[in-house]
Each structure stands twice: as C-alpha cells, then as structure tokens.
Amino acid sequence: MQNFIFENPTKIIFGQGQIKRIGQETARFGKKVLLVHGQGSIKKNGVYDQVISSLSESQLSVVEFPGVRSNPVLSHAMLGIETAKREGVEVILAVGGGSVIDTAKTIAAGVGAEHDVWDFFTFRKTIQTALPVLTVVTVSASASEMNAAAVMTREEGRQKYSIRSLFIQPKVSILDPTVLFSLDRAYSAYSAVDAVTHMLEGYFNNMEPNPSPLQDGMVEGLMKTIMGATETILQNPEDYDARANMMWAATLAFNGLTSAGMGQIALPVHMIEHSLSALYDVAHGAGLSIVLPGWMKSQLPGKAGRFAKLGREVFGVTTLNDEEAALAGIDRLKKWFSLIGSPVSLGAAQIPAQDIEKIAENAAALAQVWGLKAYTKEVIAEVLKLCV
Amino acid sequence: MQNFIFENPTKIIFGQGQIKRIGQETARFGKKVLLVHGQGSIKKNGVYDQVISSLSESQLSVVEFPGVRSNPVLSHAMLGIETAKREGVEVILAVGGGSVIDTAKTIAAGVGAEHDVWDFFTFRKTIQTALPVLTVVTVSASASEMNAAAVMTREEGRQKYSIRSLFIQPKVSILDPTVLFSLDRAYSAYSAVDAVTHMLEGYFNNMEPNPSPLQDGMVEGLMKTIMGATETILQNPEDYDARANMMWAATLAFNGLTSAGMGQIALPVHMIEHSLSALYDVAHGAGLSIVLPGWMKSQLPGKAGRFAKLGREVFGVTTLNDEEAALAGIDRLKKWFSLIGSPVSLGAAQIPAQDIEKIAENAAALAQVWGLKAYTKEVIAEVLKLCV
C-alpha cells in the first residue's frame, strides 16, 4: 500500500424525508444564501419547494442563481461569482447534480479571489479560502457532494479542467434517494457509468504484482452494488433500496475512500472524455462508456492482470489464462454499458471518426496541465481509434 | 437502506515515515500537550523517540501521562484529568492502541466537565466540549483513532461502559504500519478478532429479507482482507503490506462506514465481552472470540440467512441449505479464530463455567444502560453456556 492522507469532513445526511433539515444545517454557516440550481427539474420533482420551505423556516435570506446546465461553463459560474459578491452572500447551497455542485464550488472559490477564477483550474493559483458550500443532491454520479473537486468548461478553447481543495468541499450534503425516482433512464445509466469509471481508474492503477486486497475488495463490492442497483432501477425507477444503494455507492466511489493507498491516481479516461463533452456536449457518463473500453484495449499489454481480475471478480469470468480473462472482462464491461443503454462507440454518439485528431489535440492540452506526459496527441488518437 | 448521518472528520495520515508529522499537526491545536501512553512498549519500538523529537521540533511543551494499561480504568483517567487541569494543557496526544486513545478521549471530555466524568458513561450527562485529541496508533483494532467512542472500566462495580461524541473524536491520527512489526502474535490475532467482530455485529444486523448489498460487500471485502493479512502477519510479522492492509482495514471496520445505513446497530457480543474483560482482565479480542461463536449459535433461528451469507461469501461454503450453511459458517469462523490462536471457549481463558451467573449479572447491568432490553440476565447466561 502507498502512503496517503485521507480527510473527508463532509457531513452526510442520508435518507427519505431529510431535505427538511437543509435550513438548520445552512443556518450554521450564514444568514444569506446563494441558491444554485439547474434547468428547472427541481421545480417539477418537488425538491425546490422542500428546500425553499426549509430555508424560510430557518429564516434565511435567499438569492437564487438558477440556469446551470450539464457540462457547466465558466462564464455562467463567473456570473454567479458576481452575483454572490454583489449580494454579499455568506453561504452557497447547491441543489442539483455534479454540474450544479461544481458551479457552486467554483463560485465559492471565486468570491474569495482577486484574480480570474480560471487561474485555479490551470494551477497558476492555489485556493486559499472559499465560502462554505452545502448541497442537496438530485443526481448521484459525480460524488462532488463529498469530495474536494470541481470540473468546469471554459468556452474559449473548449477546455474542460478541474480544481481540488478542501476549502470548496461541501460542509453538509443531503442525499434523499426518493429524489432520484424522477431521473430518466438515460441519466440513470450514465450515472452508473460515471461512478463505475471513477473507481476503475483507481482499480486499474492498483498495481501488480502487489495490488492491495483492501481497495480491490471495496471497489469490487461497490461495483457489483452499482450494477445490481442500476439493473433494478431500469426495471423500476421507484425502487427505494436500489436508488439508495446507487446513491450512497456513487458517493463512496469517488470520495477518496477506494483510492486511498493506491498512490497517485491518473484519470486518463476522464481526461479523454473531457474533450468529448467539451467539444460535443455529450453527457459525461455517455462519453466515459465510449472511451473506457477502448482505453482498456490500448492498455492490455501492461494491465492484463488487472483487467482479468475485473473479469473474474465482477463478471464471473472463469478462464484461467490472464489475457483471455482480461479480454473477456473488457467485453463484458462493454456489453454491460450497452445493456443499460449507454453508448460504446464514437459513432453511437454521432461523433465522426474524422474528428479524432481534433479531439486528441484538445485532450493533449489537458494532459499537459494534469502532468500525464505519456498522453501525447498521438497516443490519445490511438486510444480514440479503438473507440470507433 | 435505513436513514443515517455519516460524519467523520478525522484526518488520517497513513504510511511509513509519517510519525514525524505529529509535531506540526499537534501545533495547530495548541502549545502545551498532554502525552498519554501505556506500559512502555513505545520506548522499546522507537515510537516514543520519534514522537518526542517531532513535538520538540515544533516547539511544543509536553506533559507526560504514561501508565495506561489494557482494559483502561477510570481511576487512571481521572488522574489524567487532574494532571491536564493542573498543567493547563491545550491538546491531548495519545500514542498507543485503543486503551491509550480511549483514556485520552476520557481525559479530553473530563477536563471540560464540572461533574464526575463517569456521568457521561451512564448517559446522565452529555459531552458539550472537549480538548482536541490527536493520536499516533501502535495497535490497530479498536478504530478509536477514527471514531467518536471510548470505553472505560470503572473499578467499583467492575463496569466497562462507553461514551460517544464528535467532541472527543481525534482531529488527526497517524498510522504507520511499521510500528506494528513489534506487535506480538497474540495481540496481532486479538486485533483481527476485534476488527472482524466490529463489522460482524453490523453485518448480522443488516436485516433480511432486505440486506443492503453495499454494506455486505464492504464488510465481506474488509473481512477477507483482515483474514488474509493476519495469516501473513503470523508467518511474517514484518510484512509491510499485510500490516498496512490490516491497519487501514481495522480503522475502516469501525469508523461508521460499514454500518452506515444498517440502522441502529446493537453490539450484544461486545456487551457480553465487556463483562469478561471487566471481571477477568482477558484481552478484549480474546473475549470476543469466546463470545461471538456462542452468541451466533444462540441466534441461529432468526439469523440463519445472515450466517449462511457469511459462510458462503467469506468462507466459500457451498451448501445450498441455509441452516447448514449457517452452521458451517459459525464453525469455520470459530476454527479461524482457533487457527490464529485466539481462545474460543471460556475454559481456554481460565474462566470457570460456574461463574456464568456472575458474568451474566454484570452484563445485564450494561444491557440496561445500552437499552438492550431483550438481554436479561437469563438470556445472557444462556449465551454464555454456549461458550463453555
């Protein structure tokens, strides 16, 4: 096991009927709240009313900042920073999924900065302070409700970059699985792909010949949980236990727990996917199910043992030969993505193969920022050719 | 899944060579430190010197409070409270295992209380404040380094009771697996029994017909990790990866993670064991390996499905019939405790069967405090008869 620091102070309040606590939790951090939300789904599913009622019961003053869309953009977050500064808000409440929460985190960091908030994303500046962030989760996939990261796309240059700081990690997150009942089939599937990929990028990194059984066991357990729950959800979107298992598993999948001790985790699949969603606005989960199987094929020579373990432990592959088990593992994973309705080729997302060079160039720029030197434009293009 | 709140703010610094950070971490909380430790093992294995050197580098003033023994006693903790008050310490550093950490927590709570600290253990009073606690772990079993609980024995009446409060939860814990290299065979085994039992009390509670696959998967994964690591450790006490896997797994086993969502967890096995270690001063882990298999037998009618799942998932039992698989599971668990050298009968720990009434009476008093009404003196005596 590698040395690590694990620190995750977010208070999770989990379960049906818990949104009513958001007022009293928010009031611990301030009186004036910036309420960040998205495209209006929370007004349809009743979450908005629950939140407003709880905030008003705690006599909080609310400034609304709606309009976040998926693959959130910097210009909108900068509008949020302006609003937060002008109104003098003391605390930020995100009600939504990863895009809304990441916008809230970016605003929280930006309010305390004298410079362009994008400097945090290019690592030119380090976050030194932020407004407190709380969340009410309406889509479970990003784990942003219990981690220190935020991802944002800057329209100029179509750069989808990220930040990470304990200052922007949510103080409190409320997870009510009934909120997911209205999440459609597509996003229910993409959420599963996202959560699974978060873990697998670490799992494939848990290096042989000495992978830690502890992290392997957690990832395999959570992955089987997510797969089983997602299959149930697609049959019955209002199955409480399935939604609850998916919701908590997705949080644990990327809150630092499964990767602690695995060493520095590279996220090449996320990195390449960021270019797909930055350039084509495909859903992040859909992009991941396109890139992951192709990336695995590209890594087969060095990682057959790891892919074989996935095949055996998660998909019940029984082949003794490692390379065969690895190929079977990749194939079974890809088939499972298809089964739940997530695309597994560029074509399925209407991304033309002739764009590969352009995508690779975009991703290679992020590879430089993230320090993934092996991922040149050429290497990334080779991976993308395996995703056609 | 049941509703839950999960909040675990302890910062974990994990790995070889990390003890040198304790000075700077402690300095964040105060200048004058009460250094709580045990019977001198840290002077033999070099941990004491590392800690003192780091504290002095950070220019902290140190008041020593050594002498904690396993199954720590209230009178000693009260001496610590006096010392802490007299010396005006600002922060408490525990260097040791669960007994040392629990003593430090009790002192931390006691310093801020005007009344008898035991009132916290009988739930007559609630902890409202405490000095900050940090830890350097030298025995991995209790998970006290990352949870809010402390257990203490009051000599008068031989009561072994517990407290739980976020105020006493460690701010920072340093876990260096090399420190465990000098832990002897017996305590290495007892540590495994303790960690496994912490999880199983929840696992058996993860109620049918609807057990949560998420928690089941985590417990099964961590349990297999602990078992594999312990077998390696008994062969080679200086196997770094095995010690590291055991160390982190033991922390995760009782830091609230595996039980979150399982509902209110009763700890009847711990409760009955508390009476064994309070009355006979057997090691806590040794007491648990005596009580757990007997308790399982007593619960067979209602919990066959759960015991069968343990047998199948952890021990590879293949019997289709639930009751047979449950019996096989109990048998395999008991055999594994024996294999690693932990006692599985009262006799093996020189506890005479004719004392059962006395033990049951002691445990029944704690059952009242813990609200486990089903555990009358008679019921507990029946369980103990299955441990002969």
| Integer-rounded radius of gyration of chain A | 20 Å
Order of helices and strands of chain A: EHEHHEHEHHEEEEHHHHHHHHH
Q: Which strand order does the major sheet of chain A show?
A: 1-8-5-4-2-3
What is the class of the largest domain in chain A in the CATH system? Mainly Alpha
Work out the helix count of chain A: 15
Draw up the topology in text.
2 copies of one chain form a homodimer.
Chain A: E1 4-14, H1 22-27, E2 32-36, H2 41-44, H3 47-57, E3 61-65, H4 74-87, E4 91-96, H5 98-111, H6 118-121, E5 133-137, E6 149-154, E7 159-164, E8 172-175, H7 185-203, H8 213-235, H9 240-252, H10 268-280, H11 284-298, H12 300-315, H13 322-340, H14 356-370, H15 377-385
Parallel strand pairs in A: 1-8, 2-3, 2-4, 4-5, 5-8
Antiparallel strand pairs in A: 6-7
Helix pairs in contact in A: 4-5, 7-8, 7-9, 7-11, 8-9, 10-11, 10-14, 11-13, 11-15, 12-13, 14-15
